[in-house]
């Protein structure tokens, strides 16, 4: 078996890799920390999979639901969606350096992802909190703290 590093990864493979990583992170980090009574902050969890893989890549919700039911034993109590115009987000990504696989996508992909986050927010505003990420980091942090209190 030879590995072609130039080969385009299929959307299903990408989703499965995300969930393999998520299952490991839950087992090794999140669940033990919660068992010790700690507060856990996690970057990019199940809502991101819906926005990126379902809304962005066009994968079915059924696939995602099946993976969540079988491999995600703890759902988040609250999710913060840091929302900013796509152009601003891309400018920030470029300022950090080399763009990753997602950041190299076309604008239409990010429009779909942003719509996916918006859909979650509209459907579950009690849990999904939209933060205005055009603000300074300090303002965004203060807004997040407001929701945590």
Key terms:
two-stranded parallel ribbon; 6 helices; 149 residues; mainly alpha
Helices, by number, come to 6
**Helical/strand content category:** mainly alpha
**How many β strands by DSSP?**
2
Oligomer: single chain
C-alpha end-to-end distance: 53 Å
Strand order of the largest sheet: 1-2
Notes on the protein architecture:
- The protein is mainly α and 149 residues long.
- It contains 6 helices and 2 strands.
- It has a two-stranded parallel sheet.
- It starts with 10 loop residues before the first helix and ends with a helix.
- 13% of the residues are buried.
Short description:
The protein is mainly alpha-helical. It is 58% helix and 7% strand.
Reconstruct the topology from this structure.
Elements: H1 11-35, H2 46-56, H3 61-71, E1 79-83, H4 86-96, H5 107-123, E2 128-132, H6 137-148
Parallel strand pairs: 1-2
Helix pairs in contact: 1-3, 2-5
């Amino acid at each position: 078996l030879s590995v072609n590093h130039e080969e385009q990864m299929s959307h299903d493979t990408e989703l499965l890799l995300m969930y393999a990583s998520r299952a490991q992170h839950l087992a090794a980090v999140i669940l033990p920390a919660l068992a010790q009574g700690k507060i856990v902050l996690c970057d990019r969890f199940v809502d991101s999979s819906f926005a990126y893989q379902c809304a962005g890549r066009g994968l079915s919700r059924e696939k995602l639901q099946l993976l969540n039911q079988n491999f995600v034993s703890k759902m988040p109590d609250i999710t913060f969606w840091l929302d900013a115009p796509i152009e601003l987000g891309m400018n920030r990504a470029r300022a950090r350096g080399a763009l990753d696989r997602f950041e190299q996508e076309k604008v239409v992909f990010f429009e779909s992802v942003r719509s996916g986050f918006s859909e979650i927010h509209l459907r579950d505003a009690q849990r999904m909190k939209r933060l205005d990420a055009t603000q300074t980091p300090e303002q965004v942090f203060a807004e997040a703290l407001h929701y945590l209190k």
